[in-house]
Structures are given as structure tokens and as C-alpha cells.
Hints:
Dimeric_a/b-barrel; DUF1330; 4 helices; Alpha-Beta Plaits
Amino acid sequence: MSAYAIAHLQEAAPHREIAEYIERITDTFAPYGGRFLVHGAQHEVKEGSWPGHVVVIGFPSLARARAWWGSAAYQEIAPLRSRHIEGDIILVPGVAEGYDATTTARAIRETLPPR
């Protein structure tokens, strides 16, 4: 099942280390099957507040996403970003092939008290 690394990064002033991080990050994906799905795109806020930038990286599995995050190659360059850009980063599994949201709704309804 696919998995995703999702980052919500705050605005930051341009810096050489940020440029170096961006230049080097793609090479860290290769052993784990990762690839950018969203990077550098302007997002459109429909509800709430979402300042900054969104990055989404796809992986073939959560295990591969975790392995990439913990890899020596990524950990070596991570400070180039984190010293200059604050943000939140999560790893999240995707849904299985054929996922049906009505199954989730049914499970929620089963926990509700009778009317």
C-alpha cells in the first residue's frame, strides 16, 4: 500500500543551505522508490488557514517511507532544511486498492447511540 511523506513548511528567506537541500533530496529517494508528487506548487486554501508550502512525496509503502526518513543519506541533509525552515512533517499510509469510505461511515454509525 502506498505511503506519503507530507510536509507543511513555513515561509523562509532564501538561503544557500536550502538550495543545497533541494538539490540533494531527490537522490535520497532512489533506494526507497520515493518521488515528489507535490513540490513548489502554489496551493489553494479552501477552509482554514494554511500559510507556507506543501510538499508530498510518494513511496511504495510505509516501511519504505520510514526507511527513507531514517536513512543516513536523508538525515545528513535534513539539517540543511530544518535550520532555516520550520514546519510539520508526517508519514501516512495511503488507502488500500478498492477502499470504500462507506465502510468507515458504517463503522462510525455502529458506535452511535440509537436515535
